[in-house]
């Protein structure tokens, strides 16, 4: 017979309350990051903008460029802080699953994002295999698709015709989803840890970014019960694969 002592119960309750406190600490930490870091960065950017408006006309090109550099650094830092906040927010989220039309989601994410990438008119989205409905957390899976598609859009920049292909297939009896592109790709020899924080294969001079996207994708896919990996070939493109639990594949 299994008996649970009051002592064990107390220990479990202590653990739960400890973990609640930690989550609460994280929320407080996040909101203070938002206020204490983002506000001054916005202020610096605001002063730089006013400075340019009021004194730009009297400055030479180099002076204007220096102030514009300040504004660019402010924008990049705000993006980075937002991505870090996303990371802490989504990585901790408990999934709430419901039926999701994955093909429709991929299409709508593509259309939402494509406009913000240059040469958007020459980037196409196509499908291979028929993408099933899945049981997933709508919010988390959208973040996953957004991160993967935005990588494909970014790394196909410069291609005359960028092609993004989303597909679904069985590999060793396991259902696998993938999103591939014909972009710059990367060298697999040095790519073991692309799912780690801040890991990148490309310099930010060539392609902007912070190396948080795939780390977040991994956290979210794992919390949805799946696995994720990526392959690439220099000059040919990359393919990001992910699985979800078999019982979450609907017809
Ligand atoms: N579709 C892709 N094509 C080429 N390289 C990619 C692709 N997706 C990811 N990578 C490589 O993996 C790195 C990490 O991706 P990610 O975490 O999304 O960071 P970021 O997009 O901020 O660079 C990228 O910097 C890039 O080197
Ligand atoms: Mg990315």
* pLDDT averaged residue by residue: 88
Structural class: alpha+beta
Overall strand count? 7
Count of individual domains: 2
**Assigned CATH class of the largest domain:** Alpha Beta
Strand content: 15-25%
Question: Layout of SSEs?
Answer:
Blueprint (H helix, E strand, L loop, with lengths): L5 H50 L5 H31 L6 E4 H13 L8 E6 L4 E4 L1 H18 L6 E10 L2 E8 L31 H11 L4 E6 L3 E7 L8
Parallel strand pairs: 2-4
Antiparallel strand pairs: 1-3, 4-5, 5-7, 6-7
The site of adenosine-5'-diphosphate has 23 residues, from helix 4 and helix 5.
Question: Can you give a write-up of this model?
Answer:
The chain has 251 residues and is an alpha+beta fold. Helix content is 49%, strand content 18%. The protein folds into two domains: 6-91; 98-248, 2-Layer Sandwich (Heat Shock Protein 90), CATH 3.30.565.10. The protein has helices at residues 6-55, 61-91, 102-114, 138-155, 213-223; strands at 98-101, 123-128, 133-136, 162-171, 174-181, 228-233, 237-243. The strands form two sheets. Strands 2-4-5-7-6 form a five-stranded mixed beta sheet. It has a two-stranded antiparallel sheet with strand order 1-3. A hairpin with a 2-residue loop joins strand 4 (162-171) and strand 5. It is globular and about 70 Å long. It binds adenosine-5'-diphosphate (ADP) and magnesium ion. The site of magnesium ion (MG) has 5 residues, from helix 4. Residues 147, 151-152, 155, 181, 183-186, 194, 199-202, 209-215, 232, 238 line the site of adenosine-5'-diphosphate (ADP).
